[in-house]
Amino acid sequence: MQYESTLPADYDMKIIRERVATRGHALDDRAGLGLKAYLVRERGVAGSPVNQYAPFYLWNDPGRMGEFLVGGGGFQGIVADFGRPVVRHWTGLAAEAGQARGTRPRAASRRLTELPAAADLTEQVTAALAELRELGRGEGLHTAALAVDPHHWRLLTFALWEREVPGAYADAERYEVLHLSVPGLASLPSGRAW
Question: pTM value?
């Protein structure tokens, strides 16, 4: 799941950095959460057209995700400070642990790929799974995940990187990772989840 709070062009991003520095630890032991990457994009940095706070979550338990969003489990702080954003959520297909899993990731990438109506879904997903496995063998990868949005028929490839997003992902949205909460990282399924 991910939500994006797009901020004014002249917004002082130090405010978000301070928010994460003081509050980011709140989910470090959250039951049902695989990981939460506290992500930002700054206008003019790494090609970003906007200032944005855009945390990304991998949940081990969708019920806990629901509790977080509507059961008083923490999302109300975002709503109080920034208004209620649209929350995107996908169905997880696979995850890969990278060689840099034991490090603190500094960068993240998100790539959305359309699944054309005329294309064979099984073939496209099988190819995307093979790409994810190959990504998992690459240098500098912490964690990668593949998911599907069956509402818009798009695949999501999300990756955390030890240092920077590789050049092969120039077409992906790039983020800086301010903090990473990993209470259930070891429980995230490795390889294909279905």
Answer: 0.94
- How many residues are given for the chain? 194
Rounded Cα gap, residues 66 and 68, in angstroms: 5
> For position 31, what pLDDT does the model report?
95
Beta-bridged to residue 156, according to DSSP, are: 112, 147
Q: Exposed e or buried b for every residue in 89-123, given b needs 16+ CB within 10 A? A: bbebbbbbbbebbeeebbbbbbeeeebeeeeeeee
Answer yes or no: are the C-beta atoms of 147 and 90 closer than 8 Å: yes
How do beta strands 191-192 and 91-97 pair?
antiparallel
- In one letter, which amino acid is 85? P
**Confidence (pLDDT) at 80:** 93
DSSP state of 31: T
DSSP secondary structure of 68-131: HHHSSSSTHHHHHHH----EE--EEEEEEE-TTTTS---EEEEEEEE--TTS-HHHHHHHHHHH
